[in-house]
Amino acid sequence: MRHSVSAALILMTTTALPAFAQELTPAQALALIEQAAVSMNVDFKLRNQRVEGDAIVADGFKYTADEEVGLFTFTGGPIALRPSADDYDVEIDWPEQSSIRIDSREGELESLTFGVEMLGTDYRFRIADGAQRDADGVPELIDYTFDVESFAMTLLEFEEAVGEDPVDFDLNVLLSELGSVGTWAADGDQSMSGSIGSMVTEFFVDAVDGRSRSSSRSEGLSFALDTAGPLIRGETETIGPDDVLRFSFSSSGSQGSAEFGGPDGNFSYQTSSGGTAFAVGVGDGRFDFEAGASALNADIAFDMLPVPGAAFAVEEMSLDISGPILPSDEAQAASLSLGLERLTVSDTLWGLFDPQAVLPRDPATLIAEISAEIDLQEDLGGMMEMDQPPFMPRSIQIERLEADAVGAALMASGAFDFIVDGFEPIPVGKATVEVSGINQLMENLTQIGVITSSDLLPVRMMLGVFMQPNGDDSYFTEIEAAADGLISANGVPFQ
């Protein structure tokens, strides 16, 4: 966890140094930056620091973070902190040129050095409303605003680990119209949000076992980051109720492409999206994950398989997961939501098993919305004993389950409570299930050779026993689970 925190501090320094509202001096601002660095286990130094008039000036700066995976060093200069003329108190004259070096303790590369160029930079900060000061007048909390016209990071050089095969490697990142606002505390806690007009990445690697090249472009990006708590500050190694780590990211559109080549063949793809969103967070003893995309398209080409390529398209796609990570004396809520709407695949894939187009090729949809109450028995943020299941279900609600593909459809909903007998939870409740198009689907699968005609009879017999007709090639049933462990459908017990 410390690795991500220190890396975030380096990124924050390149894209979001703090912001400060009442008569903050450059010396107080610098003192708070130094305090925050110490709290986050980062070594911060200014080279040849001096006072010139009402400003603090230095020939350069150096951030160093020593992590398990390697040493991160961020350097640049000259730099100055001086009073600001607007409603912010202090502004930073930031160097246009700086560098980031990563000395790795694992992997094929021993070190990487990136050059960073920032043009049109505007850093300003002030004391946050209501913030207290220490005995030296240093505020405990500051606000910041940051804007930069362009941010470019380019790989300058790299060194391979001893004994590794030769490799050629390149990476470039370009951001335009980057801006953010937020708060930063002396103990390292922070909250920030911002936007990026566009982001372009280019990556290339040529090694003994193959080569790859990729590029991407995203427009209309926004992001937010909130961190707080002992774990984030490196004071402990396990998640606690006071720890907060939340990150979100979205874009209004993106395109990407990649090519891979090696001894086994070549592979390439192109993707585009009308919009994407991603959010992950830990807070109040819970974990939350959300991801989604719209108008997603992908074209794939390869020469190592019988089919030359394939194409996919999805109108809407989403995945949401929420649940507890810390134990409680009471049952806690958890949920899962999955959406895959109007998925289509190219005829090249269909042709592998259905060249005569027997199966309907209409867009497919899968939607699931499930919530539950669970007893969490292990701290998922620390080491688990694994001598018992980490959680036990108390109840589950199938609020919505829908699937529609190849001419058949399914809909289900229901609710179950659980009786815990030792380590075996016994469900008690009911669910309703409706299916349609199942007989026609079986006929079509027989026609294309997926199943044989002798397989149809037992399937139709099961439909007659466990389900009731509900229209033309449509069936309905109620599944019931009893406290004695007996499960039945349409009133007929499963044997």
From TrEMBL:
Pfam families: DUF2125. Keywords: Signal. InterPro entries: DUF2125 (IPR018666). Residues 1-21 form the signal peptide. It comes from the Bacteria. This is DUF2125 domain-containing protein. It comes from Pontivivens insulae.
